[in-house]
Amino acid sequence: MTLVVEGRLQDSVLENEWHPVYISSDLVEKPVGVIVMGERVSIYRSKKGVHAFRDLCIHRGAMLSEGYVVDDCLVCPYHGWKYDNAGKCVSIPAQSKDMKIPERAKAEVYHCQEKYGIIWVCLGEPTIELPSLEEFEDLTRKPLVCGPYDVKAAGTRVVENFTDFAHLMYVHGGLLGHPDYAELPDFSITKEKDRIFTSEVPIYQPVAHSGSEAREGTTYVYVKEVFRPMSARLSKRDADTGQTLWILLTVLPLSEKECKVFMVVSRNYGFEVSDEDFIKFQDTVFQQDAWIIETQKPELLPLDLQAELNHKVDILSVAYRRWLKELGVTIGTV
Ligand code: FES
Ligand SMILES: [Fe+2]
């Protein structure tokens, strides 16, 4: 069980991770409140970019995310104190102009950036930068942000489900797999310092992806990879045409057993198909995943490999659990 101090879940690893918090294009002039590991965080946009503060005004504890942006500063809605992008209070309307603003009048600032169409926040000091993932940054591949999806389950369970192949024929039966083609070929995994990935795994799928030229069942070649405790990605290629779909899945832990899931989907085909169709397809697939993940017990991912029955097809999931243990991730694990 992860310790909670003043509402924030204590996890020395995830504290220093970049967490996805909001879809970039949805943050316009109004500040927004989000939850990161139980902590309330306000995010807002200035001319210089995006910023994140602890969602608490030092004066009387009001939520800064309920305030507004004036002259690129965040203004508290209670008594109008105005904070600049560095969190320094630059105006206290109730005091005379020649009075000095107290040194302690500051907002707590968190690291904040935009990448792959998502706003990311780190509550501590980032241990590692977000990688350059060309498939989600190259606009010619039309990266689309899907979700975020609210799931009543641990983020670790969601990431693990993303690493899983053997559910495709059942949870997504008739769509991403078929029970008659459930047998998986042997595949291997490779572990590097900050990534674990599979070899190519062919999977027969009854329904081709939106926009694909394949009409009947197609065998797609999958490669899956976990690259952060809460982030994974996959590619899915039609070997005959080279048409490929890439998916990035990244999870924001709200609490031990609740999370928000962001996905970015890119492609090198089907540009004439509407973005809505791709997003709708992803929504359907993810609802199927969420439904099963929310039934799992224990809710927290067991890092003791004897606790559940690991099968040979679970090699990526086992490696993921080992990695979480090595790193010392506590949120969402037991
Ligand atoms: S509580 Fe924010 S200005 Fe008073
Ligand atoms: Fe799934």
Automatic annotation (TrEMBL):
<feature type="domain" description="Rieske">
    <location>
        <begin position="18"/>
        <end position="121"/>
    </location>
</feature>
<dbReference type="InterPro" id="IPR050584">
    <property type="entry name" value="Cholesterol_7-desaturase"/>
</dbReference>
<keyword id="KW-0479">Metal-binding</keyword>
<dbReference type="InterPro" id="IPR044043">
    <property type="entry name" value="VanA_C_cat"/>
</dbReference>
<dbReference type="InterPro" id="IPR036922">
    <property type="entry name" value="Rieske_2Fe-2S_sf"/>
</dbReference>
<dbReference type="Pfam" id="PF00355">
    <property type="entry name" value="Rieske"/>
</dbReference>
<keyword id="KW-0411">Iron-sulfur</keyword>
<dbReference type="InterPro" id="IPR017941">
    <property type="entry name" value="Rieske_2Fe-2S"/>
</dbReference>
<protein>
    <submittedName>
        <fullName>Rieske 2Fe-2S domain-containing protein</fullName>
    </submittedName>
</protein>
<dbReference type="Pfam" id="PF19112">
    <property type="entry name" value="VanA_C"/>
</dbReference>
<keyword id="KW-0001">2Fe-2S</keyword>
<keyword id="KW-0560">Oxidoreductase</keyword>
<keyword id="KW-0408">Iron</keyword>
